[in-house]
Write a structure and sequence with these properties.
The chain has 4 helices and 2 strands; from the N terminus they run ααββαα. It has helices spanning 13-17, 29-32, 65-74, 93-152; strands spanning 42-44, 47-48. The longest helix has 60 residues, at 93-152.
């Protein structure tokens, strides 16, 4: 467990940001918070815990993932399902082109649907805006129309 760091020990953000004129020397985290590793862990002050030592380092470089997985599968219960390996497929250029065309068509339809949905939303917003503008200007237009008809009489 790390010791708590008092906020006054940390540099202010403005001290770091306000260095446009001069080159910024920003401290690293290890410079701000010194590394503190506990020497021992105990459950009570007078009883040290023997299992608090660091776990042994494992070297995974000498074993491949397949070997490690086979050991896990080997030690697994007999009813554990085993994943099949990758299937090798030879795909010719015509199949690749057909898949690419199908994918392109699918993307085009998805983007067209999204575009239509966004256009409908924008159209709806434009109609609502036009109606609200008309509602706000309608009393003035009616008053102006009534004034012009009264002047003609």
């Amino acid at each position: 467990m790390m010791a708590p760091v008092d906020p006054p020990d940390l540099p202010l953000l403005t001290d770091i940001v306000d260095t446009e004129d001069k080159p910024a020397v920003i401290p690293t985290l290890t410079e701000i918070v010194p590394a503190k590793t506990p020497t021992h862990v105990s459950t009570s002050p007078d009883e040290p815990l023997a299992a608090a030592e660091a776990p042994p380092q494992q070297d995974f470089g000498s074993h491949s993932i397949a070997q490690m997985a086979s050991k896990l599968i080997w030690n697994a219960p007999s009813d554990t399902p085993v994943m099949p390996g990758p299937v090798q497929r030879n795909i010719n250029e015509a199949d690749i082109q057909q898949l690419a065309d199908h994918f392109e068509t699918h993307l085009e339809s998805v983007f067209t649907a999204k575009l239509n949905r966004h256009l409908q939303q924008l159209h709806h917003q434009a109609v609502k805006l036009a109606i609200s503008e008309l509602k706000s200007e309608l009393p003035g237009l009616l008053r102006k129309a009534l004034d012009t008809t009264e002047l003609k009489k």
